[in-house]
Specification:
By secondary structure, the protein is mainly beta. The chain has no helices and 41 strands. About 0% of the residues lie in helices and about 45% in strands. Strands 26, 27, 28, 30, 31, 32 and 33 form a seven-stranded antiparallel beta sheet that branches. A five-stranded antiparallel beta sheet has the order 14-17-18-19-20, with no helix packed on it. Strands 36, 37, 39, 40 and 41 form a five-stranded antiparallel beta sheet that branches.
Length: about 575
């Protein structure tokens, strides 16, 4: 069995920006975004912006980074990749210049044949229909649509008129509004969402035009979908919208992605997750199960969307619940030291935008999580952060605004476990590795028993003081599942696109049966609760409703021991 945990455990490259016009340095960040995923000659490939390469996997769980040839436009955004016959076609986007295409029969070794382009675009997507005709979609704007046209399959140049296919409708579709939790109504042009990141799929004779909304820097970055009877429309919004939406949890965001069928007939959606602290484009990549229901509605399962998920290698249920529960949230933490404003407790607060920072870069610094009692531990995710890192841009001629670090600087550490705090054993020793994995994921499928986990001997790139945004522990508790959640859900706002969910703070259940958190599910039918939001707390505003649409809602409670399903109510 294979397991993964979002964000994907890959090498996210550093982006080193130029100085501002007045000579001020800017903070460095890591970035990967806008993933295109394909299957080609026995392997899965993910191409993402600003990575200088491609990630390759045999099983969708373990990925290796490979550098791509320099002749490709690796500094252009939103790489689009599609298989057509024996070839893989590649392009990326930069406005105000003609964007060329490239094709190859060997992704890793090339050669890549250049196919000259004759127009510029943002966020491209190539689609090959069953009859061999080729179509192209693009667009990234807060006032222009997603466009589409037909291409000549030999020259890859347009042979038909450009069609305007879909515009943003933030006055009708709450999930398209910008801001945290879709909080900003589009009254001014600057408040309108960017509609971008097209991706086309065909299923049972229908065409599914997917697009990103709301803005990459927000927790609500996601993907919607329109459906049509032909590749250039007309298109109408699918009733199940948004299609990809993950606003809660440790790392939110699920926008500007792609959808793919694996060799066993399972569908997967990969998309962009957000941090957006050191820079707006500080982003990562996630992967979720997807599919089409019996009515032909495209869905994506993002319940517990940044918890470990297993991949069986065969046909599997896209709605399978987590095998292992979160054990670390809110638990007691101690550390060798704490820099002011960066407490050790941040490693268990389930928020990627907070982190622990020790007082020095000495490898003897440590942080220790006390789970409160002994648990059966199966997986640990260690998340590293950057805190005001400044570096000189090595080559300002390479890109428009930054240089992508092409060297590997390892992240090294040692993780210890203990049942009693006295006798310690090594869970994983990476104190001498040469890999740079900022969201490293360790699996012990057979489990280990521990109460305490201690991370030490830490060394990170550029000699920084190490920062840990999450020391996340998953496994199984032996106590009772939580009591069913009581809740109040009401629709609010003059635009009818917001839902407030309240869960009473008073809980009569004994401590071992109390909820750690809640998974809020909603949808347009009682058996189609396809949207979800992880909540640690008792109150949340969900601004993703469609005006005049009816909804059903369920609140599931979870703790270290399992999940208790709630009852479905009509909103």
């Amino acid at each position: 069995m294979s397991y993964y945990c979002n964000p994907l455990n890959v090498n996210y490259r550093y982006q080193i920006p130029k100085k501002t016009p007045d000579g001020q340095p800017q903070p460095v960040w890591r970035e990967a975004a806008d993933p295109s995923m394909i299957y080609f000659k026995g392997c899965y490939y993910i191409f993402a912006s600003m990575t200088l390469g491609v990630w390759v996997s045999k099983d969708l769980a373990h990925w290796e980074n490979h550098r791509l040839p320099e002749e490709l436009p690796l500094y252009d955004y939103a790489p689009d990749v599609r298989v057509m016959g024996d070839y893989v076609y590649f392009c990326a986007s930069r406005i105000f210049k003609d964007c060329d295409r490239y094709r190859t029969k060997d992704i890793l070794n090339g050669p890549y044949e250049k196919i000259p382009g004759n127009f510029s675009f943002w966020d491209p997507n190539l689609f090959i229909d069953d009859d061999g005709r080729v179509y192209f979609y693009w667009g990234c704007s807060n006032d222009a649509p997603i466009y589409g046209t037909e291409l000549d399959p030999e020259t890859m140049l347009p042979i038909g008129e450009t069609q305007s296919l879909l515009y943003g409708q933030p006055q009708e579709r709450g999930y398209e509004r910008i801001g945290e939790d879709n909080c900003i109504n589009a009254k001014e042009k600057e408040d309108r969402p960017y509609i971008e990141g097209a991706w086309m799929d065909k299923h049972d004779g229908k065409y599914y035009l997917q697009y990103a909304f709301a803005g990459t820097e927000y927790n609500t970055y996601g993907d919607g979908v329109y459906v049509g009877e032909s590749p250039l429309g007309p298109f109408v919004p699918q009733k199940n919208n948004p299609y990809s939406y993950h606003p809660g949890g440790f790392m939110p965001g699920a926008g500007h992605g792609s959808t793919m069928e694996d060799t066993s007939g399972n569908f997967w959606h990969t998309a962009t997750m957000r941090i957006s602290l050191n820079h707006t484009f500080e982003r990562r990549v996630g992967l979720w199960p997807a599919g089409y229901d019996s009515d032909g509605e495209l869905f994506c399962n993002q319940r517990f969307g940044d918890w470990p998920r297993r991949i069986t290698g065969g046909v599997q249920d896209p709605w399978e619940e987590p095998e292992w529960m979160l054990l670390s949230e809110g638990k007691h933490v101690t550390a060798s030291s704490e820099a002011e404003g960066y407490p050790a407790a941040n490693v268990v607060c389930e928020n990627v935008q907070n982190w622990w920072k020790p007082a020095s870069r000495d490898r003897k610094e440590w942080v220790l999580v006390d789970l409160g009692k002994q648990y059966e531990v199966h997986a640990i995710q260690i998340n590293f952060a950057e805190d005001h890192l400044y570096l000189e841009c090595r080559d300002e001629s390479k890109g428009i605004t930054r240089f992508i670090e092409d060297r590997i600087f390892p992240i090294q550490w040692r993780l210890m476990g203990s049942a009693d705090g006295n006798l310690w054993f090594v869970i994983e020793d990476k104190s001498d590795v040469e890999t740079d994995l900022a969201h490293d994921f360790i699996v012990r499928e057979n489990g280990l028993y521990a109460r305490y986990l201690k991370l030490t001997d830490i060394c990170v790139p550029y000699g920084q003081i190490p920062c840990i945004s999450g020391l996340r522990v998953f496994g199984k508790g032996s106590g009772p599942k939580p009591e069913p959640a009581d809740f109040i859900a009401v629709r609010v706002g003059d635009m009818d696109m917001d839902m407030v969910v309240e869960i009473p703070a008073i809980n009569p259940a004994p401590p071992e049966a109390r909820a750690l958190g809640y998974e809020i599910l909603w949808g347009h039918a009682p058996d189609k609760l396809y949207h979800s939001r992880t909540l640690f707390g008792n109150h949340v505003n969900i601004g993703a409703l469609v005006r005049n649409e009816s909804y059903y809602i369920r609140v599931d409670a979870f703790n270290e021991n399992g999940i208790t399903h709630g009852c479905v109510r009509k909103l």
